[in-house]
Write a structure and sequence with these properties.
Rossmann fold; binds magnesium ion; 4-stranded antiparallel β-sheet; about 25% strand; binds adenosine-5'-diphosphate; single chain; 6-stranded mixed β-sheet
Length: about 240
Amino acid sequence: MLEIKNLVSGYGDIVVLHQLSLHVNQGEIVGILGANGVGKTTLLKTISGLLKTREGTITYSEREIQNISPYKELGLGIAHVPQGRHIFSKMTVLENLQISLDNARKKLNEKQRLEYVLSLFPELKDRLNQAGGTLSGGEQQMLAISRALIADPTLILLDEPSMGLAPIVVQNVFQAIKRISDSGTTILLVEQNAVAALDIVKRLYVMDMGRIVYESQQIDEKELEKIKEVYLGMDVS
Ligand SMILES: Nc1ncnc2c1ncn2[C@@H]1O[C@H](COP(=O)(O)OP(=O)(O)O)[C@@H](O)[C@H]1O
Ligand SMILES: [Mg+2]
């Protein structure tokens, strides 16, 4: 469904991603683990069109998308949940969700979509009329994911949903991500928190210094040992 080949991208004179390749199959939940600063956010920004691709190709549903705008990508069904959530803090929870419906690629049944996301994140139900900025960190993450999900995407790019959250809240958020995946949405999840990610991903890559340094096959006991070895051998802060 998503195929990235020899991707090069960065900022100004700085090259961050060096000939990076990976793929995500339809319906999969794929993890990319890596320490702070290895280029995870840069990768997701490049996929979603916020950053320009310098070399290489990004193919999505058999169409090259490396040079199209984030808005057009949304239209193709790719939703990006950015690191740090970026919800509209002065708007209510409901308004945050409605904006996303307004930007969606197709006419959606607002009531149905709202019911669906609230079934995944019941925590938000009592908070619909509250300003986004008054939510807890965990609730803001749930809102950020809901905002992507409500527009009925086929692929969701998740950038460190666990960041800054207490372990119990991380568990809640990750269980919801698993339910989203179970319902058929394809997910590419970028994380520093290996323990949480390993609970839900079906396959994963480990990234270091802008490159993929390890690609897992089926995740079983033996694979887990290898991942730990590779991942914990890095400076994971
Ligand atoms: N806007 C920017 N301008 C210049 N360099 C940046 C910018 N954003 C990130 N970088 C650099 O790119 C590298 C990768 O950053 P990032 O993709 O945010 O890593 P990660 O998400 O894995 O923590 C880092 O060295 C970082 O300092
Ligand atoms: Mg990041």
